[in-house]
């Protein structure tokens, strides 16, 4: 029987589960993330300024990456995937390849 979990968060691989057999660290340029967030909010009916969204993202990243306790950073053994210029299908393919490498006995 196989057991496990998929967890999402800014310090999962470095603080919460540092010994996890596979860690994926997804990232994208702040401008790309702002554009994605803007599209999500617009689809939900919100009218938020794209510039303000990007400013907020950059401010949060700065705060999170420089804090003393659990700073935002990939674990040393994480597979870092920059999603800035990749489709969801491309990101999924990279993640599945990493999973196949980490768990070859589970992939049939």
Describe the structure.
Helix 2 crosses helix 3 (50-66). It is built from four helices and two strands. It has a two-stranded parallel sheet with strand order 1-2. The protein is globular and about 50 Å long. The longest helix is centred in the middle third of the chain and has 17 residues, at 50-66. It is mostly helical.
Q: What is the topology?
A:
Layout: H1 12-16, E1 24-27, H2 30-43, H3 50-66, E2 79-82, H4 88-102
Parallel strand pairs: 1-2
Helix pairs in contact: 2-3
Give a short summary of the structure:
It contains 4 helices and 2 strands; from the N terminus they run H-E-H-H-E-H. The chain has helices at residues 12-16, 30-43, 50-66, 88-102, and strands spanning 24-27, 79-82.
Order of helices and strands: HEHHEH
Q: What is the helical fraction, as a range of percent?
A: 40-55%
Question: Can you list the strand order of the major beta sheet?
Answer: 1-2
Q: What's the alpha carbon Rg, rounded to whole Å?
A: 16 Å
* Beta strand %: 5-15%
How would you describe this structure in keywords?
single chain, 108 residues, mainly alpha, two-stranded parallel sheet
């Amino acid at each position: 029987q196989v057991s496990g979990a998929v967890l999402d968060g800014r310090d999962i691989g470095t603080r919460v589960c540092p010994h996890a057999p596979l860690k994926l660290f997804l990232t994208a340029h702040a401008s790309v993330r702002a554009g994605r967030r803007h599209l999500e909010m617009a689809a939900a009916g919100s009218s938020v300024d794209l510039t303000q969204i990007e400013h907020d993202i950059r401010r949060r990243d700065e705060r999170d990456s420089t804090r003393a306790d659990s700073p935002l950073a990939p674990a040393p053994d994480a597979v870092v995937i920059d999603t800035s210029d990749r489709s969801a299908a491309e990101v999924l393919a990279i993640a599945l390849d990493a999973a196949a490498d980490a768990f070859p006995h589970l992939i049939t």
